[in-house]
Amino acid sequence: MKYCGQCGELLLLNQGNRNRAKMICPNCKWKWYSNPVPIVVVLVSAGKDNIVYVRQNQYPKGVWSLVSGYVNRGESAEAAAVREVREETGLDTKVEKFMGSIVSNNAPDDIYLMFHCKVIDGKLKAGDDADEVKIAPVSIDELVTNSVAEKMVIDFQNELKYTGGV
What we know:
Strand order of the largest sheet: 6-4-8-7
Cofactor: Mg(2+)
Radius of gyration: 19 Å
GO molecular function: hydrolase activity
Helix content: 10-25%
Domain Nudix hydrolase: 34-160
Number of helices: 2
Family: Belongs to the Nudix hydrolase family.
Organism: Filobacillus milosensis
């Protein structure tokens, strides 16, 4: 945001109190905070030791990720997780667990809300934002190193070891 949403004046950066950066209009004092955008990232389990991977053509060859997408205005994060899985993979799921949230140093404008969902129905087929989808054993081998997806899969692998399965 470069200009005031009220009067059109050029906004100025103001650290404000509690060291929270915001843009402020020197004319009308309107404030704009650059809050992070909520994105769901979904680890989808399909059976005991398999998860769903998605791939976009923009990724380097051989690189896969997990289902992800934006939370729509008025939508709960849980509903967004289930919707994104259906849109990208054709699978119907139910939320098993909220796995946490993170703001990545690589994308500080986004807040990632991480979910584990289980497949309950549907047929695997690439849809919105996914050029390929697959169900494969739980592994980080084809994920981007130090990504949110990699963190989630490592956490899930550790949970599988501790609990003996999903």
